[in-house]
Amino acid sequence: MISIKSFEVNYFSENTYILYDETKEAVVIDCGCVHPEEREAFSDFVASNGLTLKHNLCTHLHLDHTFGNEFILKTYNLKPEAHKADVDLLPPASEQAKLFGFRGKMADVEVGHYLANGEIITFGQSELHVISVPGHSPGGLAFYSPKNGFVMSGDSLFAGGIGRTDLWGGNHEILVAAIHDKLLALPDETIVYPGHGPETRIIDEQLENPYL
Fold it and tell me: What is the pTM of this model?
């Protein structure tokens, strides 16, 4: 059984997640921790629960979801894992920070493994299935647990909304098609944990999301 801990962090109210099971092995998804107190809260949770982080997974490489990648690398020796299209087609984190007007230096952390649609991420006794959901970014991903009935949707699908498509490589038509083909096709009761805002369910977004 996978347990999920969420942290709302940084200037964009981004959701950073830790997923772990009874073996105490864990993964982090979209570490956006930028402030010292956010990183301390993250580390305290890992330590107090005796967790061992095995993967640093990225739904996409926009800066609000990658502020914490240098912290994860230095603290847990884990490089980020992401889709190659985001590496190839998005500006590096340091350039994104400049374009958004951030004065502090942001490190460019090398992606250690390229994730692909259909790949299975393992930790402890658990699995996450990689789903390609492009459109918000060229290499947008979601992470799905069939056994536990949830999907981590990143910035593709929100409660009552979808991701913006006016950033680098974004495409509204591609995003909507990917959501319909890949996410709304999941079982109705699947819980959706998005990159911002509250959780929702696939059935609720099928019936009520005005963008779909």
Answer: 0.97
